[in-house]
């Protein structure tokens, strides 16, 4: 689906379902971070009007997803916990290559696309494997919605790349690296854990 090199073991959904309050809290914070990332990207490239407009929509949608997750947390009598550290994202961040402004922006787009791809894949695993029918339906709908973000970030990378920057080749490198990173995850009740 997202050309990920190492799919999530479906048994991860059992770990997640073992502590739904934790997975929902972690997920809520992932949505906040995704909205913040979209806004940060707007700050980096305000002169690109069409991309800025699309990033604004992504930021709003991510905040809407946060609100939906927060409503589920409240409806179940739980409270949103404090922000969770996301070691997976931190590991991916280190893979970005330095370069000029345009190069760094393209790297940020690929970084964002990678996170969105894995998050969507995890939402699919949850929707296909958890017994909680409300959450299975919620994650199915969210996966479909969030998949557009993954493709948008890849499209932005292609649009912004300077001549000589091979986005397809670099994306393959991201996919290979991400497979190495994700191999050490999948053991905790967090979206990327």
Describe the fold and architecture:
The protein has 193 residues and is an all-alpha fold. The chain is built from seven helices and no strands. The radius of gyration is 16 Å and the shape is globular. It holds the Pfam family MiaE.
N- and C-termini, Cα separation: 20 Å
Sheet bearing the most strands, described?
A: none
Total count of strands: 0
The whole-angstrom Rg is 16 Å
* Global morphology: globular
Going by helix content, strand content and strand pairing, the class is mainly alpha
Short summary:
The protein has 7 helices and no strands. With 193 residues, it is mainly alpha-helical.
Task: Based on the model shown, name its key terms.
7 helices, Ferritin-like, mainly alpha, tRNA-(Ms[2]io[6]A)-hydroxylase, Ferritin-like_SF, tRNA-Hydrxlase_MiaE
Question: Could you give the topology of this structure?
Answer:
Elements: H1 12-17, H2 20-44, H3 49-75, H4 87-93, H5 101-129, H6 133-160, H7 167-182
Helix pairs in contact: 2-3, 2-5, 3-6, 5-6, 5-7
